[in-house]
Amino acid sequence: RGMGMRWRVLGFGRDSSEAGKRSDIDMDMENSPAPSRTSPVVGVLMGSGRESYGDPALDRNFPRTYLRPECSYSCSLCLLLAEANVPFEMYKTDLGGKASWHAQVNPSMETPSLRLANQEEWIHGTDKIVDMLASDVREVAALSTCTPPGCPAEGAAAREHLDPQMCSFALFMALAGPSKMRDFLLSKHGLDPKEEDVHGVVLALRKRQRQVLGRWEEALASGDYLCGSRPGLLDARLVSKLFTSYQLINSGLASLGCSFEQAAPRSFAYLCRFSLRSSWRLVFGEGREVRPGKLDAVTIRTVCGKFSKLCPELLDGKILPALARARGGTGRTLDREALGLSAASALSVSSHLEGKAVLCLGDSRAQEEEPTADGAAGSRRGPGGWRHEAGRRDRIRSLVRRAGGGALRPVSKASRMLRFNPAILYFLILEKEWWFCGLLAVAVYGLPVVLLSLLAIPLNFDNDTEEAEIFYNGGPPPHIILAFRFTAGNVISMGFGTVFPTSDWGYLLATLSQLLGILINVFVFAAVLAKFQSPKADVVFSQSCCIFTRDGTPHLCLRLGNLRCHTLFNPHIRLFLLRDHETAEGESFVRIQEIKVDLPGTVSGVYSVTHKIDEDSPLREAARVMASGGAIQEELLAIQCTFTALDPVYQAEVCAKYNYSAKDIGYGKRFADMITLLGERPFLDFSKFEELVDAGGGTVPADPAGGLAARSASTASVASSLRSLGSKKAQTTLCL
C-alpha cells in the first residue's frame, strides 16, 4: 500500500492465539529501505519476487504487483526462526532488480544473509547461518534435530538425501540448449551434459526425482513431520525446497509424467499441513497456502524470469504455459516426450494467447484468418465456406449436448418411483438437472410456509412497519399477509422479521418455524453443495462403430471423446457383445461376452477404441457375415462400451456408457482423421468426430488372418506430421 515502505515482520512461530503476530505489515511495491546499523531483533535478507513485473514478453497485460518473499533459502531461515519463536524482521530485495544497498549487506549479491539482534555484522551462507543459530540462539538449539528413519543421521547428508529442488531444476534445464547452468545441474546428478539422447537424460532425471520423493514418502510414514509430531530443524530447512519442487512439477516446468500429488501423496499432505501453520503465514504471507489445484504465481514467475534468460528457446513451449497455469489458466502444450504419450491417443492441447489460455468451442473465427506466405491475413474459406462452417458448428454443438446426456442416463426410472423414500431425493438431486434442484428448493420452502401461514391466521401480530405502510399505502396490510410474512421470516431467515407474535401460542409457532427452517436450510445447502461436487464426465461416444481391415486383420473401431481440456488418468474401457442365445434345453437368454481392447495410459481429447477380430474374437462370425454381404441383425443384439477414469479435478472417478445395435455397425469404413494442420500447428477438429471415410483396404476377407490392407495416404501424412512435432516443439491448439 505504500511505496518504498519496509515489510517489517515481528513474529513467533507457535500454533497459539498469541503466535504469529505481525506488526506494521505492508505490501511493498519496492525494495525495503537500507537496514540500519543495528536492530533489537534478528534481521534476514529476503530474496523476493512478484506475481507479475509487467514485462511484455512474460506478463503480457498483467500489471506490476507487490513484492513477496520467494527465495527458498531465505524462507527456510525465516521458518526456522518462526518455529523457534525468535522475533525477526525481513529486508526484502527484489531478485528481478536487487536493492541498491544489497551489496553492502552481501558483497556477492546473494541471499540469504542474517544479522543477530544488536549486532552489526551480517553472516552469509545458509549452512553457516544455521550452524551459528543452533549454537548461539537457545530457542533454535531447542528445536528437534532428529532425522526420520532411513535418513543419514548427519544433518548435511540428510538434507542432500531429501533435497528435491535441484533435481527439479535439472529436469527443466535438460530440455534447454548447452549452458554452464545445464552442465552443472546434469553433472550434479551424474549425467553427461554432452549426451545427445535428451529423452534418455529426462528419463534418468525423472527416476532420480521419483527416488527423492520416495524417500520423503518413507520419511513421512512414521509422523506428520520429518522430525516427529511437530516441525524441527530438518523440516524448516527442507520444506521450502519441497514447496519449490512442487511448483515446478505441477506447473509443467519440470515434467514428471504425473502430478506431484500422484507421485508423492504424503509429501503433498505434508505441504498442505505445514502451510496452515502460523510460521508459514508469517513468512510467505496470507493466501500462499498449498491446496489441490493451486499454484503459487510468485514462485513460478520468479523461476520463469530466470529460465527465460538462461534458455529463451523454451519460452513458448514451457515457460509461458507454466505462467498461464499459475495465473489460473488451463493451457497445456503438446509435450509428448515429457508426457510419454503416443500419437494414437489425440491429446487435449492449447495455445497461449495474450497471457490467457484459449479454447475454441466450435467458433470458426479462431480459424478464419491465417497469415499467407507474404504475411498478410488471408481467408481460408472458399465457395460455400460459410455454410460448411455453420454445419461444422452445428455438429459440434450436437456433440457437446450429447456429452453427459443420454449415454449416461439409466434405461428406466420407473422402478425407483415405485419404492420412493426420502433418501432417494439425494440420488435425484445428483442425477437431475439444475432446474430440478431449483424446483425442489421452491417446494421445500414454499409448502411449509403456506401450511404454517394457515395455522398463523388466527394469531395476533405486531407489525414494526405498520406506520410506514399506512403512510405510503394508505392503510395497513391484510392480516393474511402479516401471517405469511411472519412464517416466511421465521422459516427462511430463522428469526423474527418485521412481524412478531404477541401471544404464547404465536411464540410457540415461531419457535417451531425456526427449527423447521434450520432443517430446510441445511438440506438445501447440502443439496446445492452435493450438486456442485458431483463428478460428471463430458464423455461422448461415436454414434456408430465400423469394421475395417488394418494390417491384414479386421478390426472393430469406435470413438470416445473427452470434451474437457484436461487429462483423465487410469482409464478402463470395456466392450461387451450381447447375443441372443438358446440352449439345447430350449432356454433363451442374452449371452454377454467381453471383447478385448487395448487400454491407453491416459485419455485427453479423443481415443479410438479398437478390437482385433482374430480367430479368438467373438465377432469373427459377424465379420465373415458382413464380408459376404449378409446381415447380422438376427445374430448380433448389441455392443456395449463402458468407460471409467480418474478425474484429477474432481479427485474422483467419472463413468459413461453407450450401446450400439447391429444397424450402427458400418463395414468397410473407418473414422476420418481429426488432426489437421494449419500451417505448422495441428488442430483436433471435433466436427469430424462422427465422419466416416472409405477404409481404402478393400473388403474384409472371409479369413480374418489373410490379406494386407493399404494404409491411407492421409493417415500416413498426419502420422508423419506428428512425428515431426517433437523436434519443432510447436504449440498446438485443441479446437472443439
Please write out the topology.
Blueprint: E1 42-49, E2 68-69, H1 72-83, E3 88-94, H2 102-105, E4 113-115, E5 123-124, H3 126-136, H4 138-141, H5 155-162, H6 165-173, H7 180-188, H8 198-219, H9 233-251, H10 260-263, H11 265-274, H12 278-284, H13 297-310, H14 315-326, H15 336-339, E6 345-346, E7 351-353, E8 356-358, H16 365-368, E9 369-371, E10 377-379, H17 385-402, H18 414-418, H19 424-431, H20 434-456, E11 461-463, H21 466-473, H22 479-492, E12 499-501, H23 504-533, E13 539-541, E14 545-550, E15 553-562, E16 568-582, E17 588-595, E18 602-603, E19 606-612, H24 620-627, E20 638-647, E21 652-661, E22 665-667, E23 669-671, E24 675-678, E25 681-685, E26 692-694, H25 713-723, H26 725-728, E27 733-735
Parallel strand pairs: 1-3, 14-22, 25-27
Antiparallel strand pairs: 1-2, 1-4, 4-5, 6-19, 7-8, 9-10, 11-12, 13-15, 14-15, 15-19, 16-17, 16-18, 16-20, 20-21, 23-26, 24-25
